[in-house]
Design brief:
The protein has 640 residues and is an alpha/beta fold. The chain is built from 18 helices and 30 strands. It binds 5'-O-[(S)-butoxy(hydroxy)phosphoryl]adenosine (WT7).
Length: 640
C-alpha cells in the first residue's frame, strides 16, 4: 500500500489515520520511501515500552543532511533554504540558497573534522540566532557528531551541568549575540562555564558583535580563521557520514519534575521522518512558500521547524535574530511583508504580548501573503486566538494549534491547515501515527469518547524520545512507568464528542512560562542555595502575558536584612544558577510551609493562594500546622 506524503483532503486524513493505527509498519514503510537512504531498513518498527526500547527503520543507513541539502541540489540549488533577518533592521538580510547552505555546511563540517571532532562526539552549541547556528547544527549532523544546542538565555552553571552530563569536549559559540538593544556576552558565559569543564578540548568562536573576548591558547579558535584553513586545504566537499537509523542525532536538555534537566535523545531516521511529515502536513506546506517560525533554535521548535522540517522538505525557512518588540512592536509584521511570508508559527505568549500594544503597530502592514498561522508551546486562550485570527490572519487564514513536546520530536495533536477544522483553544486531532489515550486517576484508560484525565500515547511514533542521555532508567521512570505500556506526556486533556483534544496543562510539577518549560524543583534548588534561605516552595499561577508566572514562597532565616533587597539577591542567585528565564515573578517570605505529617508540601494550597483563591482552600486538616495557611494568606496582601 502507498499513502500520500502530503494529505490534501479530510478523507485522505481519515484514511491515513486509520491505516497508521491499524498497521503502523505498512503506513510508515510507505512514508519513509520519500527520503534518501544509503540503505533501506530491514524492519520498520521494533518496540517495547517497558524497557523502553524503540527502533524505527532498523538496519536503515542514511545521513539527515543529505535529505536536508544534497537531494535538493538537483532542481532546487538556487531555491532559498534559509533567509536570515538581523536584529538590526538596517543591516542587510542574508539569503542562503540550497547550494550555498550545502557549501557552508560542508565547509564547517571540515572545520569540525580539522578540530578533531569525530562521529559520536557530543558538541555543545551556544550561539545567537545567526545562520551559522543552523550551519553548525547541520555540520555536526553531516559528520555524525551529536549536537546539543543550549538556549542563549541559560547561565554558565546550567551550561556546565549540561556539558558534564553530555561529556561534550567541543563547544561552538559566538563572541556575543544581539537581542533588541542589548549585546549579550555569550563567550564570557562560556568562559565561566568552562572553568569547571576542563575536559573541553576546543571552543570555536564566531564573530558577531565583535565585543572583546578572552581567547585561551590551545583551546579557543576563531570560526573565521578555521574556515580560512579549510579554504587553503581546498576541499569544498565533505562526504556525509553514513549513520545507522537509530544512531543519536541530537541531545536537547529539558526540565522535568526533578531538579536536574534531562538530555532528551532523538535518533537520525525516526526524527527526520517525523519532523518532515508533520511539517508538510500540519502546515500544508507548498513548494516555494516562505515559512517563518519565530522560535529560537535553542528549543525543540527551532530544531524541528526552522531547521530539519523545512529543509528536509526543500522549503524556505526564515530565521530571525531579533525580538518581536525591537525596534517596535510591528517587527514581525514588517518581516511578513518584507519576505512575503506564507506561514507564520509563533507562541501564544508572543501573541498576547503583541496584543497588548493594540492594533496601531499593524497600521500600514498588508500581511496579505499569509496563508496559514500556527501556535505552539502552551494552551492559547480564546481572546488571543480571536485577536490573532482577526488581526493577523484577517479572518481568512486557518490557525493550527500544535500540541507536542521536546520528547515527541514533532507535532502530535493539531488541526491540519485547510484540511481539518481549527477550534479556538483546542489542539484538536491526532496526527497519523498518534494514538492518544486518556487515563483516570486510578490509571485506567477511559474508553468513552468524552473523557478528561491524563494524556498518554499508546503506540510509538517515529519521533519518540529514545532515551535520556547517560541515564536510561530516568527515561523509563519519567515517561513509561506511571502507566504500564503507555507513554505518559505529563499533560492533562479533555476529549470531546468529535474526538478533539483540548490540552489543559501540565499535571506534574513542571511550569510553562512564556512557552518555556521550567521545573519547580529546579527553581527551588536554586533558591535554596541562596545564603540565608532555609526552605522554599515554587508554584505556577496564571499570568496575563506569560501564561504562567513563577511564585516562590521562601523561608528566610536572617531577619536583619532588608527583605526587598534579599528578594533582588535571590533573583540574582536564580539567574546565576539557571538563567534569567527562571526568575520568580513573585517572592513571598513566609515563616512556614503547609506540610503534611509525612513532610510533603501541600502545593495545592500554595497554588490556590498564588491564584488569589483564598476562600476555598479545601481540606487543611491533614496539615501539621494549619495556622501557617492563615499566615501565608495574610502575608500575601503585602506582596506586589
Ligand atoms: C509542553 C512541552 C512543543 C514545543 C515547544 C514546547 C505544552 C506545547 C501546546 C499546545 C497546549 C502545549 C504542554 C507540553 N504545550 N504545545 N499547543 N497547547 N499546551 O516544548 O518545552 O517540551 O514543552 O508544552 O504542556 O507538555 P516543551
Amino acid at each position: 500500500m502507498s499513502y500520500p506524503h502530503q494529505i490534501s483532503t479530510r478523507e485522505q486524513y481519515d484514511i491515513a489515520y486509520q491505516a497508521s493505527i491499524e498497521n503502523p509498519e505498512a503506513f510508515w514503510d510507505s512514508i519513509a520511501q520519500n527520503f534518501l537512504w544509503k540503505k533501506k531498513w530491514d524492519q520498520v518498527l521494533k518496540w517495547d515500552f517497558v524497557e523502553p526500547k524503540i527502533e524505527w527503520f532498523a538496519g536503515g543507513r542514511l545521513n539527515i543532511t543529505e535529505n536536508c541539502l544534497d537531494r535538493h541540489l538537483e532542481g532546487h540549488a538556487n531555491t532559498p533554504a534559509l533567509i536570515w533577518e538581523s536584529n538590526d533592521p538596517d543591516e542587510h538580510h542574508r539569503i542562503l540558497t540550497y547550494k550555498e547552505l550545502h557549501f557552508k555546511v560542508c565547509q564547517f563540517a571540515n572545520v569540525l573534522k580539522n578540530n578533531g571532532v569525530i562521529k559520536g562526539d557530543r558538541v555543545c552549541i551556544y550561539m545567537g540566532m545567526v545562520p551559522e547556528l543552523a550551519i553548525a547544527v547541520l555540520a555536526c549532523a553531516r559528520i555524525g557528531a551529536i549536537h546539543s544546542v543550549i538556549f542563549g538565555g541559560f547561565s554558565a552553571q546550567s551550561i556546565s551541568d549540561r556539558l558534564h552530563d553530555a561529556q561534550a569536549a567541543f563547544v561552538i559559540t559566538c563572541d556575543g549575540a544581539f537581542r533588541g538593544n542589548k549585546a549579550i556576552a555569550l563567550k564570557e558565559v562560556i568562559d565561566d562555564a568552562l572553568i569547571s569543564c576542563q575536559f573541553v578540548k576546543r571552543c570555536i568562536v564566531l564573530t558577531r558583535t565583535r565585543q572583546p573576548v578572552s581567547m585561551i591558547k590551545g583551546r579557543d579558535v576563531w570560526w573565521e580563521d578555521e574556515i580560512r584553513k579549510v579554504e587553503t586545504q581546498g576541499n569544498p566537499v565533505c562526504k556525509a557520514e553514513e549513520m545507522d537509523a537509530e544512531d543519536p542525532l541530537f541531545i536537547l536538555y529539558t526540565s522535568g519534575s526533578t531538579g536536574k534537566p534531562k538530555g532528551v535523545v532523538h535518533s537520525c531516521a525516526g526524527y527526520m521522518v517525523w519532523a518532515n511529515y508533520t511539517f508538510i502536513n500540519v502546515f500544508n506546506y507548498q513548494p516555494g512558500e516562505v515559512f517563518f517560525c519565530t522560535a529560537d533554535i535553542g528549543w525543540i521548535t527551532g530544531h524541528s521547524y526552522i531547521v530539519y522540517g523545512p529543509l528536509t522538505a526543500g522549503g524556505t525557512s526564515l530565521m530571525f535574530e531579533g525580538i518581536p518588540t525591537y525596534p517596535d512592536a510591528g517587527r514581525f509584521w514588517d518581516l511578513i511583508d518584507k519576505f512575503k511570508v506564507n506561514i507564520f508559527y509563533t507562541a501564544p505568549t508572543a501573541i498576547r504580548s503583541l496584543m497588548s500594544f493594540g492594533i496601531e503597530p499593524l497600521e500600514g502592514k498588508s500581511l496579505e501573503s499569509l496563508r496559514v498561522l500556527g501556535t505552539v508551546g502552551e494552551p492559547i486562550n480564546e481572546e488571543a486566538w480571536h485577536w490573532y485570527h482577526k488581526n493577523i490572519g484577517k479572518s481568512r487564514c486557518p490557525i493550527v494549534d500544535t500540541w507536542w513536546q521536546t520528547e515527541t520530536g514533532g507535532i502530535m495533536i493539531s488541526n491540519m491547515a485547510g484540511i481539518t477544522p481549527g477550534i479556538p483553544s483546542v489542539a484538536s486531532l491526532p496526527m497519523p501515527g498518534i494514538l492518544p489515550v486518556i487515563v483516570d486517576e486510578k490509571g485506567e484508560v477511559i474508553t468513552t469518547t468524552v473523557a478528561s484525565g491524563n494524556l498518554c500515547i499508546k503506540l510509538p511514533w517515529p519521533g519518540i524520545i529514545r532515551t535520556t542521555y547517560g541515564d536510561h532508567a530516568r527515561c523509563r521512570t519519567n515517561y513509561f512507568e506511571a502507566y504500564p505500556n503507555l507513554y505518559f506526556t505529563g499533560d492533562g486533556a479533555l476529549r470531546d464528542t468529535n474526538g478533539n483534544y483540548r490540552i489543559t496543562g501540565r499535571v506534574d510539577d513542571v511550569l510553562n512560562v512564556s512557552g518555556h518549560r521550567i521545573g519547580t524543583a529546579e527553581v527551588e534548588n536554586a533558591i535554596n542555595r541562596h545564603a540565608g534561605v532555609i526552605e522554599s516552595a515554587v508554584v505556577g499561577y496564571s499570568h496575563e502575558i506569560k501564561g504562567q508566572g513563577i511564585y516562590a514562597y521562601v523561608i528566610y532565616g536572617e531577619t536583619t536584612h532588608d527583605l526587598n533587597l534579599v528578594r533582588q539577591d535571590i533573583l540574582q542567585t536564580v539567574s546565576r544558577l539557571i538563567g534569567a528565564i527562571a526568575k520568580p515573578d513573585t517572592i513571598q517570605f513566609v515563616t512556614g510551609l503547609p506540610k503534611t505529617r509525612s513532610g510533603k508540601i501541600m502545593r495545592r494550597i500554595l497554588r490556590k493562594i498564588a491564584e488569589n483563591e483564598t476562600q476555598n482552600l479545601g481540606d487543611t486538616s491533614t496539615l501539621i500546622d494549619p495556622s501557617v495557611v492563615d499566615e501565608i494568606v495574610k502575608g500575601k496582601s503585602g506582596i506586589k
